């Protein structure tokens, strides 16, 4: 039933008439927010007006108010920015970790929605126009896919340019932040970008011949050399092993030397995260890339082929992490290299957009052309979005195709922006 409550909130299937919080204040839902399927609050960046005041923040949903405490949200600082608690039954007041009482909305699932729940869930899997896709001309589909592919590259270029602006025009820093972000592989992407922005490459460069010192700076700036970042069940083992203490002592020296300010370790997510994607592993791999001079912009710009890019980004962990996924948590010995699938994602989401962005910035068409060529040389990504389009009749053969379909889903279907979509136009024209 909680999944159904999520559905009702996501699609603003709200009762007619004015809404009120459980303490009697008038309420208006302006934007339900972005549905979060990973750790943290259920909806990000929602907009609600409560008692005449506009609130922008996260929303958490439960069947009963008491579930807030059952799930431990009152002890989790990630829930301090929740602005509304939506429940089917308000049976208790809820308090955040920093002591704030949250407004609550009792939301009932309409009877007709309950009756047609299975049908609605099935219909929600595809865009409304999916039935006409097999009948569309190949020329129209090809032209729209080409436009979407370019649109996605331009969108990524804008993000890279903003990073360059924030770093005083440093494209080297912008590249490093983009690379780091994509080592987060979705769940920890924001945390990795925040981490990269607080890693001074000029300082790290003075110690780039010492892998241990690079790893100390990388892990230290991530907040992962704070003892509190180690789960209590592993803390004693981590401290007894000695490697954590050595890294921490080295970081404290470098922190004082360069006046470093680490990020809060609470930004990292571990729930439903595969161990090989733990930030400790990815940071060690990045440290090796940097140590081996394979994380610089000039090295990227020299790569002409997909194979050259794969060789450049292929990396591994330092010896300690071959037998650990986190401090104090032993694992079977493995070299823990970046997998072929991970390398492809890094090339698609880092190397190719950087080539395109630098090409635009320096007015070098050959770099932009190389970006498009590389996309056409790579196989399509495999994820739930591509599978969904395949079921609708759209086959993705190259990475350029899959990037186009991801852009279509995220920027048009999810936003219900059918009037700007060429498929939407064809659907409306066929409906006349």
Summary keywords:
single chain; 432 residues; alpha+beta; seven-stranded mixed sheet; two-stranded antiparallel sheet; 19 helices; 9 strands; globular
Mean pLDDT: 92
Shape: globular
Q: What does the radius of gyration come to?
A: 24 Å
Q: Indicate the structural class.
A: alpha+beta
Number of strands: 9
Helix fraction by DSSP (H/I, runs of at least 4): 40-55%
User: What is the H-and-E element order?
Assistant: HEEEEEHEEHHHHHHHHHHHHEEHHHHH
Which percent band covers the strand fraction?
Answer: 5-15%
Total of helices = 19
Low-confidence stretches: none
Strand count, sense and closure of the main sheet? 7 strands, mixed
| Distance between the ends | 38 Å
Question: What can you tell me about this protein's structure?
Answer:
Helices cover 50% and strands 11% of the residues. It has 432 residues and is α+β, with helices and mostly antiparallel strands. Strands 1, 2, 3, 4, 5, 6 and 7 form a seven-stranded mixed sheet that branches. It contains 19 helices and nine strands. The mean pLDDT is 92. The relative contact order is 0.09. Helix 6 runs antiparallel to helix 15 and helix 14 packs across helix 15 (340-362). The protein has helices at residues 2-10, 67-70, 111-115, 117-123, 138-166, 171-182, 189-197, 201-205, 211-221, 232-241, 243-258, 279-291, 297-302, 306-313, 340-362, 365-377, 384-392, 399-413, 422-431, and strands spanning 19-20, 26-31, 34-35, 43-50, 53-64, 82-89, 104-106, 324-326, 329-330. The protein is globular.
């Amino acid at each position: 039933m909680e999944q159904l409550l999520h559905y009702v909130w996501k699609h603003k299937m709200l009762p007619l008439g004015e809404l009120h919080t459980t303490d009697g204040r008038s309420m208006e839902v302006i934007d339900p927010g972005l549905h979060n399927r990973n750790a943290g609050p259920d909806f990000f960046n929602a907009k609600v007006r409560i008692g005449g005041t506009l609130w922008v923040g996260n929303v958490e949903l439960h069947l009963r108010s008491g579930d807030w405490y059952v799930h431990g949200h009152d002890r989790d600082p990630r829930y301090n920015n929740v602005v509304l608690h939506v429940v089917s039954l308000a049976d208790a007041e809820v308090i955040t970790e920093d002591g704030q009482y949250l407004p609550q909305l009792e939301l009932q699932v309409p009877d007709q929605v309950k009756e047609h729940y299975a049908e609605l869930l099935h219909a929600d899997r595809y865009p409304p126009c999916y039935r006409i896709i097999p009948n569309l001309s190949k020329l129209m589909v090809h032209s729209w896919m080409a436009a979407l592919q370019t649109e996605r590259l331009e969108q990524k270029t804008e993000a890279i340019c903003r990073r360059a602006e924030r770093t005083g025009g440093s494209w080297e820093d912008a590249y490093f932040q983009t690379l780091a972000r994509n080592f987060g592989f979705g769940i920890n992407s924001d945390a990795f970008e925040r981490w990269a922005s607080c890693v001074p490459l000029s300082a790290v460069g003075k110690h780039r011949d010492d892998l241990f010192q690079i790893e100390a700076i990388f892990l230290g700036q991530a907040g992962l050399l704070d003892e509190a970042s180690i789960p209590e069940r592993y803390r004693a083992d981590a401290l007894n092993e000695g490697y954590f203490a050595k890294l921490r002592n080295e970081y404290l020296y470098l922190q004082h030397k360069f006046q470093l300010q680490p990020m809060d370790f609470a930004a990292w997510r571990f729930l439903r995260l595969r161990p090989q994607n733990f930030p400790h592993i990815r940071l060690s791999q990045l440290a090796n890339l940097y140590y081996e001079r394979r994380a610089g912009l000039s090295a990227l710009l020299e790569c002409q082929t997909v194979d050259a890019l794969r060789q450049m980004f292929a990396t591994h962990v330092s010896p300690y992490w071959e037998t650990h996924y986190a401090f104090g948590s032993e694992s079977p010995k493995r070299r823990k290299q970046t997998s072929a699938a991970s390398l492809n994602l890094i090339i698609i989401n880092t190397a190719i957009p950087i080539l395109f962005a630098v090409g635009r910035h320096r007015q070098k068409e050959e770099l932009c052309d190389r970006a498009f060529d590389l996309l056409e040389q790579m196989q399509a990504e495999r994820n739930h979005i591509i599978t969904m389009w395949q079921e609708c009749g759209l086959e993705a053969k190259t990475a350029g195709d899959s990037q186009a379909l991801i852009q279509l889903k995220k920027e048009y279907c999810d936003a219900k922006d059918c009037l700007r979509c060429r498929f939407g136009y064809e659907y409306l024209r066929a409906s006349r």
